[in-house]
Design a protein that fits this description.
About 30% of the residues lie in helices and about 25% in strands. It has 5 helices and 11 strands, in the order ββββαβββαββαβαβα. The protein is globular. About 45% of the residues are buried. It binds hypoxanthine. The site of hypoxanthine (HPA) has 12 residues, from strand 5, strand 10 and strand 11.
């Protein structure tokens, strides 16, 4: 089954015919909210709002471990994350959609691994390519099918938040090689890999990153909301076609 983790711009999926909601307890505590099970294009999908259904959980307080654990416990195989980002590279202007292929992690103090117990030997995961390539390709194909232009790769920088970055931080992050910046991509992607889920993200550029383009002097938070609302209709359309592709 496919799971969709919705970010701040997407706390529900109007094209999901909801069948049930279930609160799942996990050894890592409670997920951001009840899992919403439903059918999309006749296929089973489960949805979870990363920041809670009232959009109240800030990025550094999301229980990423509980979210991934809860999804894994429902026979979920694929997880698509919808994530708002600031665009660093000029091409990544507000309204642009991208499917990143790399990550740089600047977060700290988050519970970032399932492997904390000492009762088994130390476990490392390979994370050379942090996203599941097969799912990335299906997302890109779904976007092509609906005629949506999507940037097919890019490096996602995960910052701690909840504050936005300074212009100097964005300059540094760009020198490091990142193309877009968001606050929730990590540890989510790494936890998905640890637990064996195939994970990819669709990034929605909702603002120019600090110091760039229309954010040269400041980031206008109203702009983020406007751009996000318009883009999410396109994202939902892509997701609907992804579900159809997955059904073969
Ligand atoms: N920085 C970090 N996270 C974000 C941004 C940003 O500019 N826009 C949306 N999420």
């Amino acid at each position: 089954m496919l799971a969709i983790i919705g970010g701040s711009g997407i706390t529900q999926l109007p094209n999901l015919e909801i069948t049930r909601r279930q609160m799942v307890r996990t050894p890592h505590g409670e997920p951001s909210g009840a899992l919403t099970f439903g059918r999309m294009k006749g296929r089973d999908v489960v949805f979870l709002a990363r920041h809670g259904y009232g959009n109240t959980i800030p990025p550094h307080e999301v229980n990423y471990r509980a979210n991934l654990w809860a999804l894994h416990a429902q026979n979920v195989v694929d997880v698509v994350s919808v994530a708002s980002v600031g665009g660093i590279r000029a091409e990544l202007a507000p309204g642009v959609l991208a499917v990143p292929d790399q990550i740089i992690d600047y977060t700290h103090g988050r519970r970032s691994t399932f492997f904390t117990r000492t009762d088994h030997s130390v476990t490392h995961i390979d994370f050379t390519r942090p996203y599941c390539e097969a799912l990335r390709q299906r997302l890109l194909q779904a976007a092509r099918t609906v005629g949506e232009t999507v940037i097919a790769q890019g490096t996602y920088a995960a910052t701690q938040g909840p504050r936005l970055e300074t212009a100097a931080e964005i300059n540094r992050i760009e020198r490091d090689g990142a193309d877009m910046v968001g606050m929730t991509g990590m540890p989510e992607a790494a936890l998905a890999r640890e637990i064996g889920l195939c994970y990819a993200a669709i990034a929605v550029v909702v603002n120019h990153a600090a110091g760039r383009g229309t954010s040269t002097h400041a980031i206008r938070l109203e702009e983020i909301t406007e751009v996000s609302q318009r883009a999410m209709t396109r994202v939902r359309n892509i997701l609907e076609h992804l579900v159809e592709l997955d059904g073969g």
